[in-house]
Design goal:
single chain, 192 residues, alpha+beta, HIT family, subunit A, five-stranded antiparallel sheet, 6 helices, 5 strands, 27% helix, globular, nucleotide-binding
Length: 192
């Protein structure tokens, strides 16, 4: 790399300047086009109704591999998040289309809790997570992307995982395809 005084173009061995990206600067671009689907609202329901228009109602009708489901129980299922905050980010979702935690039956509460515990154990086996953020955003005002169908996030965390990428570049680096993560977690899922 050459010195970078002012707007002097930079050179990296094997990296060619790309036409149309603006004035060259010292920054390389990490493109994350898959995030545009989330930003544009792809797969987000247009109504709060249950049925095929709700991704959390539709996902359990798919094969586990196609729906990224890691585990099913009688009243809920664990699925990888299509737009993860960190590698291994799961959601635990009741099959029944309800919006509020207080609407869950005792069996649904039990299955959501058990699947959450199992998710933590499986992620620790697969990737040695140091900790977890676990929670539900109840209602759009609280940040729920799909407020009409309750879901609990299980987000693995590691020391130093909040590096400069999300802070400076508003980008997460995910080192593994979701299908590979799903296969590892499904294989390592404990029986409780």
């Amino acid at each position: 790399m050459t010195d970078l005084p002012g707007d002097t173009p930079y050179e990296l061995e094997g990296v060619e300047e790309q036409d149309g990206v603006g004035t060259p600067d010292p920054f390389l671009r990490l493109w994350t086009p898959h995030r545009m689907a989330y930003i544009a609202g792809e797969n987000k329901p247009t109504t709060g109704e249950a049925g095929q228009g709700c991704p959390f109602c539709r996902i359990p009708t798919l094969a586990d591999v196609d729906g990224l489901i890691v585990r099913r129980s009688a009243a809920a299922y664990a699925v990888l998040n299509l737009y993860p905050y960190n590698p291994g980010h799961l959601m635990v979702v009741p099959y029944r289309h309800v919006a509020d935690y207080t609407e869950l039956t005792p069996d649904e509460v039990s299955d959501v809790a058990t699947l959450t515990q199992q998710a933590m154990q499986a992620v620790r086996i697969v990737s040695a997570a140091h900790g977890f953020n676990i929670g539900m955003n109840q209602g759009e005002i609280a940040g729920a992307g799909i407020a009409a169908h309750l879901h609990q996030h299980v987000v693995p965390r590691w020391g130093g995982d909040a590096n400069f990428m999300p802070v400076i570049a508003q980008t997460k680096v995910l080192p593994q395809l979701l299908s590979e993560t799903r296969a590892l977690l499904a294989k390592s899922w404990p029986s409780i």
